[in-house]
Amino acid sequence: MQISSRFTIALHIFAAMDVFGKNYKITSDFLAGSIQVNTVIIRNIMSQLRNAGLIKVSRGIGGAELAKEPEEISFYDIYVAVESIEDGKLFRFHKNPNPECPVGRNIHLLLDDMLDDIQDAMEREMKRFTVADLNGGIEDLIGSETETTENQADAGSELPKSMDVVKETTESHSRAKAEI
Asked: CB pairs under 8 A, 24+ apart, for 14-19?
């Protein structure tokens, strides 16, 4: 069992909206550059988030924004919006256990409640975390990167290559924004 990457891509979308939304239009092209997936995947996930009432999307180059306050959107809300779970069940059971076998005959009786409890626990935990938690966490991590980079620059060491890429991407987006 594995939850698809749609869930973490959706979380990435929300984090990028928070970090970049004040300065950039949050479009599928912009998000695809951060997430490094095809824009079609981003558009599909954004459509699911919009249909769930979690984001608003303006057509064309209008961009996306939250439809609710960050503390009102739980990880569970996002999970339900983007993951397709058959009959609301996270775990799929094999269809035809052998009724002539003592294990096959009893496996559902044993596991059904256990698996429901596991799913309930996961969903309960997902409801504890919100987009506000996500935003605070990503801002803290970015802030600590900035402090580390500034300390390295003060010490005369070179910037990490990843920071060069971020800087180039940011400058490129700034130029594109100025041209619009």
From this structure: 14/66, 14/70, 14/73, 14/78, 14/131, 14/134, 14/135, 15/134, 15/135, 15/138, 17/55, 17/64, 17/65, 17/66, 18/70, 18/131, 18/134, 18/135, 18/138, 18/139, 19/135, 19/138, 19/139, 19/142
Q: Kindly report whether the global pTM for this prediction surpasses the value 0.90.
A: no
- The domains found in the chain, sorted by start residue, are 5-179 (1.10.10.10)
Q: Rounded distance, CA 51 to CA 57, Å?
A: 10
Tokens 């990457």: give the residue. Answer: 5
pLDDT, tens only, 1-60: 567 899 999 999 999 999 999 999 999 999 999 999 999 999 999 999 999 999 999 876
* Residues ≥6 apart with Cβ < 8 Å to 84: none
Which of 134, 130, 111, 22 is CA-nearest to residue 73?
A: 130
Q: 103 near 111, Cβ under 8 Å?
A: no
d(CA 12, CA 19): 10
Tens digits of residue pLDDT in 86-106:
778 888 888 889 999 999 999
